[in-house]
Amino acid sequence: MRALAEGQKAGLKSSSGDTENQEELAEGVSEAGALAQQYLERGLLVPDHVITRVMMAELEKRREQHWLLDGELSARWVHPASGRVYNMDFNPPQSQGVDDLTGEPLVQRDEDRPEAVAARLRKYKDAAKPVIELYKSRGILHSFSGTETNKIWPYVYSLLSSRIPPILSEEEH
Asked: Matching SUPFAM superfamilies, A to Z (predicted)?
């Protein structure tokens, strides 16, 4: 999500289909938004095909804007009462399994457990492979590797700045 924040600072509009944003995306009056809302009301994850429809409608509204799609698969822990999200890699709680503000226990949803995340990564890699190959064959694939956004973002920013001028920093807005 740090890339998303950095992209927003750079003047890009952003969309994310992750769990925290599913409810916001589903609030629209579109058929896809209404369908997504049905899943959310039952406490279920919104299936990929529905999120894709919601995201495509959202991006269609932003046709004239530069945008950044962001998402990540990670093992998260949540404080149910507040919705605060912790990630053991980059935003861990001060005490493992305990909310920083209330001291109440954190929970890990089934879809955030390491084995579920690993399964989604395998599924993603299988689904993404033809898209990656297409972009690679057209010479428009740009890959960035790393585990720390603050080390990767300067390379992403440099590429985006050369392709979508002008991208402005927050100070320049």
From this structure: P-loop containing nucleoside triphosphate hydrolases
Q: Are strands 67-70 and 13-16 parallel, antiparallel or unpaired?
A: parallel
Side chain identity at residue 150, one-letter code? N
CA–CA separation, 116 vs 124, rounded Å?
Answer: 12
Average pLDDT over residues 108-137: 85
Bridge partner residues of 70 (DSSP): 16
Q: What was the pLDDT predicted at 153?
A: 82
Place of tokens 């320049």: 172
Q: Pairing state of beta strands 85-87 and 76-78?
A: antiparallel
CA-derived radius of gyration, the chain: 18
Closest Cα partner for 4 from 22, 21, 16? 16
pTM for this prediction: 0.52
